[in-house]
Design a protein that fits this description.
Keywords: Cytoplasm, Endonuclease, Hydrolase, Metal-binding, Nuclease, Ribosome biogenesis, rRNA processing, Zinc. By secondary structure, this protein is α/β, with parallel strands linked by helices. It has a single domain, classed as Collagenase (Catalytic Domain) (3-Layer(aba) Sandwich), CATH 3.40.390.30. It has helices spanning 49-54, 58-65, 82-93, 122-132, 136-151, 160-176; strands spanning 2-4, 19-20, 37-43, 73-80, 101-108, 114-121.
Length: 184
């Protein structure tokens, strides 16, 4: 789900654990270099120390996101509990339930950098993985790739053709990362 908001409208998502992670990738931008990923990872108040240890680490998140970015990006990935997930979904989408991933796309900076926050609701992600018979790691990877594509303008809710394009990209990126098709 993509939410278009102005950067000044959402101060709760300050980029606080930031350092670049522009490693090798198959995609190069117009200047002939790999897109750079500036990544911060945050945890909501409901995410305790024990749960943090079980979540994907920053390096792994960067490895999953890098093949899904097509230009320089500045992402904050925030892991939240059910209460924060529900509050955000209600505030920005007027839906009174927590959803698996929300993408807050702030658009492109003048220098062409795509800026977005990807918010993952841990209890929802865990429940879906169990119900769908997926590993938790594969489901987190899928939702991060999904959110990254939303941040760059892909939208499965615009119609069948757009949905098919986004789904095909997700399947291809996840296959390159060694994950199975998430839609089977």
């Amino acid at each position: 789900m993509t939410v278009e908001v102005g950067a000044d409208e959402n101060p709760d998502f300050a980029h606080d654990e930031t350092d670049g992670a522009g490693d090798e990738s198959d995609d190069e931008d117009a200047q002939g270099r790999d897109p750079e990923l500036d990544l911060a990872v945050q945890y909501g108040d409901e995410i305790g120390d024990a749960q943090r240890k079980s979540l994907p680490k920053r390096k792994v998140i960067a490895e999953w996101l890098e093949p899904a970015i097509f230009s320089d990006t500045q992402f904050t990935v925030r892991f939240v509990g059910a209460d924060e997930g529900r509050a955000l979904n209600h505030s920005y989408r007027h839906k009174d339930y927590a959803t698996n991933v929300l993408t807050f796309a702030y658009g492109e900076e003048p220098d062409g950098v795509t800026v977005a926050d990807l918010v993952l609701c841990c209890p929802v992600v865990e429940k879906e993985a169990r119900e769908q018979g997926k590993t938790l790691v594969a489901h987190y990877a899928h939702l991060l790739v999904h959110g990254a594509l939303h941040a760059q303008g892909y939208d499965h809710e615009r119609g069948e053709e757009d949905a098919a394009e986004m789904e095909a990209l997700e399947i291809d990126i996840l296959a390159k990362l060694g994950f199975p098709n998430p839609y089977r």
